[in-house]
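[SOLVED] Need 3D model of a four-part complex

Original post:
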Amino acid sequence: MRIGELAQKTGVPARMLRYYEEQGLIAPRRLQNGYREYEDYLVHRVRKIRGLLDSGIPTRIIGDMLPCLNNTEATVVADPDPELREMLVEQRGKMTERISFLEQNRDALTRYIEAMDRAVPASAAS
Amino acid sequence: MRIGELAQKTGVPARMLRYYEEQGLIAPRRLQNGYREYEDYLVHRVRKIRGLLDSGIPTRIIGDMLPCLNNTEATVVADPDPELREMLVEQRGKMTERISFLEQNRDALTRYIEAMDRAVPASAAS
DNA sequence: CTTGACCTTGACAGTGGTGTGAAGGCTGCA
DNA sequence: TGCAGCCTTCACACCACTGTCAAGGTCAAG
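Solution:
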């Protein structure tokens, strides 16, 4: 598919898709036109990228992590790189922190919202 | 305490503490010097701000959310603002999304790391 | 052939978060 | 008194992300 279709399928503006490519996160091949041609599997990949970005992970890290997130278990053996491992462990740690942090705050929000609702039961405005 | 001490306690550079103040997230009082004087409870607050920022929530939103995260259940009744409620529900939704997303990816990372470790058992380098 | 919808690259602008440095004020201590 | 170390404001500049516009190429349909 071409960039417009991918943009529409993922909800990510074409501008951003080009940006992700520039940052080395996706690599569509080109038609004779020069048009970008995206494989189907990139839809998932783009969604993953968005999710990671929204979670506060910068593109640079995403680029290093992405190959590890597909993970067909076979891709691993090629590079027993200790630096990579360290980085992954660190990132996983950060993720875990963020998860528990978000959980806490989500629960706090829930409590607050419920308290609001108790204060103004149903839609009984003025 | 003054800005240097707070910076050191929270790990957040003094520059950032001034920035958060500029954004209305914290409001230290001033000494006759002009020096900022921070109450103890701001240590927690700053940590909370950092966590939210790291999780991809912008300062503007944080400013609106913060009062709702302390939540002594009594603070609520004052403002039965439906817009605020809507915003909170939306943010909670985003948080929930991010949580499950992060969980997924954390697990994927874990699998990958374990696979690496199986490929290079212990530290049996060359 | 023309029109319209899509694509291309390139650039400039803006926002949010952060680093850093200049120029100067306050305070405590030798 | 003078220096060291903290503080102040102001400003410039960077990175990451995003929007938008310009100038132009491609292609299918009328």
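Edit: DSSP finds five helices and two strands in chain B.
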